[in-house]
């Protein structure tokens, strides 16, 4: 008979908040770092992820980015990340934040980057049935003009796999004011690109940032958004907007030291009836995977099995794939959940 943990692990999952670089296998990271002469703080992979603070984490993230300078390596990393996530938590669909500016700085131009990703992720889709889309991420440390230029690049090279824009890194002031990128979001909207923004994540952020992203940037999804529960008015506004939130439990523990317990903001967002989906953010680098976010994090936050199934389904509902694929993936989800429920009741 299947336990709750088995069912949580086997639930089909759509992950909508995942930075491609952080899906890299650690053994691949070490191999590529040696090949390209990029310095790792330590060769001991466990010690490497034992962060003494944010600088240690950013250091590893930067190394993981810097070793991706050959399209063949990018395709390999993309493919391996899917294989691992299927094994860890039955991943069925994923959307990836990818930062074109970072890759361009390493000599991989935007069309080559997209081709490499489609190469690796397309192979994974053919072999494992895992769907994907790509989201071009604004590097917030580079400022508003660079963001507009990045969106112009995406528009100049349309590709069916690239469906929208999002964000990564932090602003130089470490705040999250989303309005500084208003021009880039307006441009993306005019050209039919979907939009998400990283807001309301840290204690330096404000609930108003969440409202600004929805009201002014017209985002289709909010990434993180936890501070929304700190302000009743913003919470009511967010709920009535119907915008989905991509929440990443383990990352809040790793970066903000928020205990995963029923008072956690994500648990409160779920109880308050927001449309929440669950993801890893920086899977490998946060020592997590799409399975653990359900089996460990949701359980620790007091989220029951029925709610976990609802959250998993929301991942497919809030996806940016086309309607035909969404219908197909939701039907597959419902069929697999029915099969799991049946298997659970067997003696
Ligand atoms: Zn993120």
What do you see in this structure?
The chain is an alpha/beta fold and 347 residues long. It has a single domain, classed as Metal-dependent hydrolases (TIM Barrel, Alpha-Beta Barrel), CATH 3.20.20.140. 52% of the residues lie in helices and 14% in strands. The chain contains 16 helices and eight strands. An eight-stranded parallel sheet has the order 1-2-3-4-5-6-7-8. Strand 6, helix 11 and strand 7 form a beta-alpha-beta unit. The radius of gyration is 19 Å and the shape is globular. The model has no long low-confidence stretch (mean pLDDT 95). It binds zinc ion.
Task: Describe, in short, the structure shown.
The protein has 347 residues and is an alpha/beta fold. It has helices at residues 4-10, 26-36, 45-48, 54-66, 71-89, 100-105, 110-128, 144-156, 182-190, 207-215, 232-241, 249-256, 265-271, 292-300, 305-317, 323-344, and strands at residues 13-19, 91-98, 131-139, 162-168, 194-199, 221-224, 244-247, 275-278.
Fill in the keyword field for this structure.
347 residues, globular, binds zinc ion, alpha/beta, 8-stranded parallel sheet, TIM Barrel
């Amino acid at each position: 008979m299947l336990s709750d943990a088995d069912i949580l692990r086997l639930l089909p999952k759509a992950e909508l908040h995942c930075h491609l670089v952080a899906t890299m296998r650690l053994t691949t990271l070490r191999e590529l770092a040696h090949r390209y002469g990029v310095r790792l703080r330590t060769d001991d992979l466990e010690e490497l992820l034992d962060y003494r603070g944010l600088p240690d984490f950013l250091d590893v993230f930067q190394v993981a980015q810097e070793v991706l300078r050959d399209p063949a390596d990018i395709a390999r990393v993309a493919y391996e990340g899917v294989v691992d996530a299927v094994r860890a938590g039955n991943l069925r669909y994923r959307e990836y934040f990818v930062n074109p500016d970072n890759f361009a700085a390493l000599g991989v131009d935007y069309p080559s980057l997209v081709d490499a990703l489609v190469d690796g992720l397309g192979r994974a889709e053919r072999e494992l049935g895992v769907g994907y889309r790509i989201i071009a991420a604004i590097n917030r440390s580079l400022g508003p003009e660079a963001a507009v230029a990045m969106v112009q690049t995406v528009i100049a090279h349309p590709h069916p796999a690239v469906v929208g824009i999002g964000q990564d890194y932090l602003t130089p002031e470490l705040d999250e004011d989303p309005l500084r990128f208003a021009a880039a979001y307006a441009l993306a909207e005019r050209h039919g690109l979907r939009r998400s923004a990283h807001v309301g994540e840290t204690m330096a952020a404000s609930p108003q940032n969440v409202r600004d992203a929805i009201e002014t940037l017209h985002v289709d999804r909010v990434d993180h958004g936890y501070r929304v529960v700190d302000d009743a008015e913003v919470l009511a506004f967010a709920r009535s907007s119907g915008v989905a939130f991509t929440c990443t439990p383990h990352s809040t523990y790793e970066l903000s030291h928020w205990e995963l317990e029923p008072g956690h903001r994500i648990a409160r967002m779920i109880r308050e009836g927001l449309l929440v989906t669950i993801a890893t953010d920086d899977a490998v680098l946060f020592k997590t995977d799409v399975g653990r976010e359900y089996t460990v994090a949701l359980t620790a936050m007091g989220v029951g099995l029925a709610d976990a199934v609802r959250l998993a389904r929301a991942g497919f509902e809030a996806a940016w794939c086309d309607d035909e694929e969404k219908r197909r993936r939701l039907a597959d989800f419902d069929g697999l959940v029915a099969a799991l429920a049946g298997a659970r009741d067997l003696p």
